[in-house]
Amino acid sequence: MPFNNAIALFQMHLIIERALASQSSSLYLCNLNLKDIPLSITRINHLLRLYLSHNRISQVPKEICQLEELYSLALDYNKLHSLPPYLISLQTLVKLNLNHNSLKVIPPEIFHLTNLEILWLNHTELSEIPCEIKNLTKLDTFGARGNNIQSLPDEFGCLENLRWLTLQDNKITHLPKNLYFTSLVHLNLSLNLFTVFPEALTKFKDMQFCFFAGNHIKSISDETLCQLRHLKLLDLHKNPLTEESDLKDYPFITTLCKGESDDDSNDEDDSEDWAESVGSSELNTSDEEDILDDLELVRGGAVLWVPLVSKLLACAY
Known about the structure:
By secondary structure, this protein is of the alpha/beta class. The chain contains five helices and twelve strands. Strand 9, helix 2 and strand 10 form a beta-alpha-beta unit.
């Protein structure tokens, strides 16, 4: 056995023994080069949070079903290609992170975990989101960045509790016509293939942060801008907007380009708003770039700000 592997196994056993001795409800077994999930974790009574990120795990053992109170499970950055059917017995699971696994399709077992509130599927080689997503009615946060998704199913609108959605860096060209989120606060559709700004977004009245950078949008109408006056931030940088200079005529829009302004006060003023916007994504333990990348879009590049100030009233005239 290679020396490094022996050290990792020793660390693993030590961590588990300490968790047993302290009756811990959380177990961190990350970056230990594990090929298998150690079965000894089932000895830890009342385990709520299990973190197995950055290992080489290729399968989930049936024994994990003995963790009857498991609330949070992080399996990101592993070698998973699928999930076993018995995983549906983890009905207490609320947070699940499967980022950076070669899943290619959303494992059908996930759609039976109806208590899920946070689901991360970034960089998992997905090409579609099945209509069964509608079963996850409690979903609050959903991330599927860096995939090959081309469209969203009509049933996606059934996720009435969804507040935080990132589908950045896919191949989406349009949204379903009847899509309507009553609770959505944060939406990231940057780096997709939109050529027209979706009118459906004007109906999302709770939305505060909207990222549409790096698409192929050439214009956005005055009428649409006025209907987006409830936003705190609209990011349209790196779009071929033909009338971008005309946007400066709107008193509620500021075009900020990196290096053009020495006044960084806006970044500080909106820090609390950002905290509120991304607060539901706390399970994203190893993919902090999802939050940091969105924040970087604010700090650098051309950004269109739609602040909640009295000047918004200009839309009505």
